[in-house]
Specification:
Elements: E1 2-13, H1 19-24, E2 26-36, H2 39-44, H3 53-64, H4 72-86, E3 92-100, E4 110-118
Antiparallel strand pairs: 1-2, 2-3, 3-4
């Protein structure tokens, strides 16, 4: 299976359980790994045969800078589902969301959530 990786996309959002997070917002980093058969793109050199990295960013941005979520898990799930809706060539996706300096007791560089989903997870 082929992979396209878009790493360290940065967004400012208002996600979290605490009122301060929803009011002040904070930075989030997102990595996505998109898996499928992209062999045709390698042979034809045509964007139509692959997944547009710019559109991956725009789909992710719409969620990360959109409606507030309490949990990183919910954000990651929304991104995964939206990617399947946007890209017919996508078979499997991993989404990692990193939250630097979380407002929880202790000293952390960051906390994060990673989900991996298959297209069949969304088919009825």
């Amino acid at each position: 299976m082929d992979k396209i990786k878009v790493n360290q996309m940065m967004f400012y959002g208002y996600h979290g359980l605490f009122a301060e997070e929803n009011k002040l917002g904070q930075r989030f980093n997102v990595d996505v790994e998109l898996m499928g058969d992209f062999r045709k793109a390698g042979q034809t050199d045509r964007m139509e045969d692959s997944i547009d990295y710019g559109k991956v960013y725009e789909v992710t941005k719409g969620i990360m800078e959109g409606k507030a979520h309490n949990l990183l898990e919910s954000l990651a799930e929304s991104i995964a589902q939206s990617m399947f809706e946007s890209f017919s060539l996508l078979d499997v996706i991993s989404v990692y969301i990193d939250k630097p300096g979380p407002p929880i007791p202790g000293y952390y560089q960051s906390v994060g959530v990673e989900v991996t989903r298959k297209r069949s997870d969304y088919e009825a």
